[in-house]
């Protein structure tokens, strides 16, 4: 079993797509073991995306991620990191395969509806950013 972090980003939450996206994740066989809605401050968004700090899109990305509430989801399943990444599709919605979340719900490279951890080590760090031990159910 493996855990991963999913985030439903501000553009998707604002369009009331959180329920639909959570249903699609569950239909794909991933279990929700942690769930919360919150609004990141700019500083918190910068902390979460610190790995991208030197990228030209960092300031815009962190403004966007702090622009409204997000839904943070801890997912569990066999090979959950790769399976959730496959469900999300390519980062750029224009390149995402039909049937993927970003193809269906993404609006742009930045407002691409969902985030997912890119590997098991990153997942552990990203899950710990949003959830303490008590907030992940067994
Ligand atoms: P995400 O998977 O959340 O990780 C970093 C985010 O930066 C990415 O999704 C995109 O939404 C956003 N982003 C904006 N511009 C770019 C870019 N040029 N290349 C990659 N990611 C970008």
Bound molecules: adenosine-3',5'-cyclic-monophosphate
Strand content: 15-25%
What number of domains?
1
Supply the CATH superfamily name.
Answer: Nucleoside diphosphate kinase-like domain
Task: State the order of secondary-structure elements, H for helix, E for strand.
Answer: EHHEHHEHHEH
Q: What is the top-level CATH class?
A: Alpha Beta
Taking all residues together, what is the mean pLDDT? Answer: 98
Task: Give the N-terminus to C-terminus distance in angstroms.
Answer: 12 Å
Q: Tell me, briefly, the overall form.
A: globular
Number of helices: 7
Helix share, percent: 25-40%
Assembly state (oligomeric): single chain
Given as residue ranges, the uncertain stretches (5+ residues, pLDDT < 50) are: none
CATH architecture term: 2-Layer Sandwich
Subunit structure: Homotetramer.
Subcellular location: Cytoplasm
Domain Nucleoside diphosphate kinase-like: 1-138
EC number: 2.7.4.6
């Amino acid at each position: 079993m493996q855990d991963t972090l999913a985030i439903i980003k501000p553009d998707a939450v604002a369009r009331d797509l959180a329920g639909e996206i959570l249903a699609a994740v569950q239909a794909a066989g991933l279990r929700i073991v942690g769930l919360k809605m919150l609004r990141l401050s700019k500083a918190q968004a910068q902390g979460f995306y610190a790995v991208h700090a030197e990228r030209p899109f960092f300031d815009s990305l962190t403004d966007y991620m702090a622009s409204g509430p997000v839904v943070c989801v801890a997912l569990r399943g066999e090979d959950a990191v790769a399976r959730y990444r496959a469900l999300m599709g390519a980062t750029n919605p224009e390149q995402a395969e039909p049937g993927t979340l970003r193809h269906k719900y993404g609006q742009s490279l930045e407002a691409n509806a969902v985030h997912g951890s890119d590997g098991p080590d990153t997942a552990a760090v990203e899950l710990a950013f949003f959830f303490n031990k008590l907030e992940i159910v067994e």
